[in-house]
Design goal:
Elements lengths: L12 H31 L6 H15 L2 E2 L8 E8 L2 E8 L7 E4 L8 E2 L8
Antiparallel strand pairs: 1-2, 2-3, 3-4, 4-5
Helix pairs in contact: 1-2
């Protein structure tokens, strides 16, 4: 369980689901801010404050204990550290998904997503 110590928080499935409404709003803010930055890059305009606004939103997610993983800023992928069957995993949610329904090992990443069983996650 030493690996689990690396994370600020380990979520049960219920805790991650309870955090989803706030996470959903923060991810919407992240994607909107990233969209503004992209638009300004296309016009070569200065983007004062937008980068720090983006970093603030990402910091909010980290403050909750989860991690933003979509560095293209297109879908809004978030991982929640958790423990399943005695090993550390990430509960995985994308902003185009209604519910928390996937997980993957810490090594596999998004490509290794598997569906969550009804009662498989806890800590």
């Amino acid at each position: 369980m030493r690996e689990a110590m690396e994370f600020k928080k380990l979520f049960t499935r219920q805790e991650a689901e309870s955090a989803l409404p706030l996470v959903r709003q923060i991810v919407a803010d992240v994607l909107a801010t990233a969209g503004k930055i992209r638009a300004l890059e296309e016009t070569d305009e200065d983007r004062p404050g937008l980068q720090s606004e983006l970093e603030e939103h990402l910091g909010e997610l980290e403050g909750i204990g989860c991690f933003f993983k979509d560095w293209n800023f297109t879908t809004g992928l978030v991982d929640f550290p958790s423990v399943m069957d005695g090993r550390t995993v990430f509960l995985c949610w994308r902003s185009d998904e209604n519910d928390l329904a996937w997980y993957h090992s810490t090594e596999e990443g998004f490509a290794g997503r598997k569906p969550l069983a009804k009662s498989s996650v806890g800590n």
